[in-house]
Amino acid sequence: MAEIQIDGIADRVGVEDALGWIDALPVADAEEDALLTEVAGRILARDANSKLDLPPVDRAAVDGIAVHAEETIGASSYNPCVLQWTAAASDLAPGGARRVNAGDPLPGGADAVIRLEHVGSDGVGRATLTEPMAAGSGIERSGSQATRGSRLVAAGHRLAAADIGMLASAGLADVCVVARPRVRCLLAEGTIQAGHPLPSGGVYDANRPLLRTLIERDGGIVVDQRTIARERAALRHALLLPGADLVLVVGGTGSGSNDHAAPALAEAGEVAIHGIALRHAETAGMGLAARVPVFLLPGNPMACLLAYELFAGRAVRRLGRQNPALPFPSREMTARRKIVSEIGMLELRPVRCPSPDLAEPMPALAEAGLKALADADGFVLVPENSEGYPQGTTVTVYLYNGYGRA
Amino acid sequence: MAEIQIDGIADRVGVEDALGWIDALPVADAEEDALLTEVAGRILARDANSKLDLPPVDRAAVDGIAVHAEETIGASSYNPCVLQWTAAASDLAPGGARRVNAGDPLPGGADAVIRLEHVGSDGVGRATLTEPMAAGSGIERSGSQATRGSRLVAAGHRLAAADIGMLASAGLADVCVVARPRVRCLLAEGTIQAGHPLPSGGVYDANRPLLRTLIERDGGIVVDQRTIARERAALRHALLLPGADLVLVVGGTGSGSNDHAAPALAEAGEVAIHGIALRHAETAGMGLAARVPVFLLPGNPMACLLAYELFAGRAVRRLGRQNPALPFPSREMTARRKIVSEIGMLELRPVRCPSPDLAEPMPALAEAGLKALADADGFVLVPENSEGYPQGTTVTVYLYNGYGRA
Predict the structure, then answer these.
(1) How many Å lie between the alpha carbon of B200 and the closest alpha carbon of chain A?
(2) N or C end of chain B, less CB within 10 A?
(3) Which residues in chain B have Cβ-Cβ distances shorter than 8 Å to A59?
(4) Structural domains for chain A
């Protein structure tokens, strides 16, 4: 039989250099109009400007009664100001008071709103006040939040509930947001889909649901997840299919002769990096095919997850103009036990957090695989040039569920 | 004209007591099977157990060559172990080596996998090793991550990417998750939908898109958002419609005679709390109608948002068995300026964070409304019994975008 190519990947690229390649990729400028009800978490592509003064008219800022402020001058408990209730519609008559709710337009002539709690009754159906009110109190002035045409939210902002509420108040029904990056996954054949019986020696596919979850978390759309034969020509062809902003090639990333991913990418475009100093995902790579960024992810699900988290995910987030940083809140904690890591490769070490300040290292991924990540509260990154951390060191923990506990 | 009811809400309930009422609500036990590709962020309702040993067979943990470990005993650079490449299929013959990728089943008879980097060539097409390998190295043993029938993920866990990948590896195509709480919003009439012209004195509806965003963020489903006439009978009727696990009544929450929300809830069921010591949302309330929790939210969008965030959102998260705490990462920061708050009510104060450790208070919500929340990086909660914080105090900031910056 023919000699098998067994050279390892000679020079592994440092993680920082790989991140640098990703950060130098051009960012797509695709954008689209979307309904305000569907843009939570998306990035505004163009400034959103108010269609009107906000609020559009002077209005009550509190639940209370609208009055002429000057009529309350001199009011005190010895000398209450007595006002006549007046019904809705027309302007507020002299000597009148009208019940308004927060947000109601101010009746014509009224220039203050007094909270209900500060209003008494004289027993014959009239309102009494025992303190003077300054003009303007209890009122939200027209245009005080924004004037017509002014910028409400700047391009680049990630839209959250308060933005969406404010934009709706200002008369917008839709906004222009950055298009979601379209991601294609090309998975090496050989795994079995869940729900089918597993032949002896077979392995269920984990990478399809895993990558779909990750890509959607990062704001991308999975346009295609297809199985590709483990051969160079088939993958080269698939790499050149149109319609994706990013392609993930999964499996066959090694450097053996039956590892087709890097050679196929070289034929379809260019391999920029193959072999990265990221433990368990050393065979990851990246490059371009038809100017579309392509990431080579190892087929082992745990390694696939690592290479996605550190590299491909950053590219998805950058393409969507989301914050490219790791999408986990981080916190400084104390290592409860020693964390040992071989020098030379960046290592992701899952940890459990028995208290908010304590990080308990879990078994290394080599032993526990995806199960360790699933059981973890978060992880620590040990850089290439570090042998780990002694017990008691302050380490940065990235938290999977970073919210306060109940 | 008839005397207008002007009593304020006599006794405001403290925020802690309102939270206590929410936390005593029974939690629904509705659950449903869902595809693994659609359960990210959802809560597992029942333990998910492995359908097989994981991994199902001994397999390569690294890209390398599978060997008989005993044949490498004594290998050194002076005395390399020379092995013959053997093709796929059958068991590994004595003296043979076979190229395997991480995740490939181990060939019969092989009991170690040597990384490609540690394999040489003798120039005539054979593999050479210069170090002995222990049996078991480079191998992931069958069942080492999980055994058939063992629990992979416990009920109550929030499913993230690593869980989903692991469950797929273990042969699961779907899992049983907690059903999303079905939320109905009953909005007082009187606002104009975006896209329509605004009549003089009119106000655009902000609460529909605002609440939809918040409810979906918290894992709920909006089953219904309907406008209800500002009258007691219409609202009472709507409160008793079936098909929701939680009802939000928006607007008309004050205590004036044209405020219909609390009286309608009293007729449909019971008002447990009306009037809460939460600044700007003092008229919020809660109760039950046909045993379904009902929240009364002020119609002003900023106040609506506050009452949702502090109260209704917690109930949505609890019903879905999500973490009920505020869904924002928090961080201790230094107040860059004095934060003043009137004693007697809990106040949410938006802040900007010019650096990761510094919280700059923004204008109070009374002045800037929803715009202040939209412009904020996060917020500080000033409790009822506090007059605020002097400059330089350490305060807990809840962050809208709590992820590390790029």
Answers:
(1) 8
(2) N
(3) 203
(4) 15-29+180-319 (3.40.980.10), 31-54+144-178 (3.90.105.10), 59-140 (2.170.190.11), 330-399 (2.40.340.10)
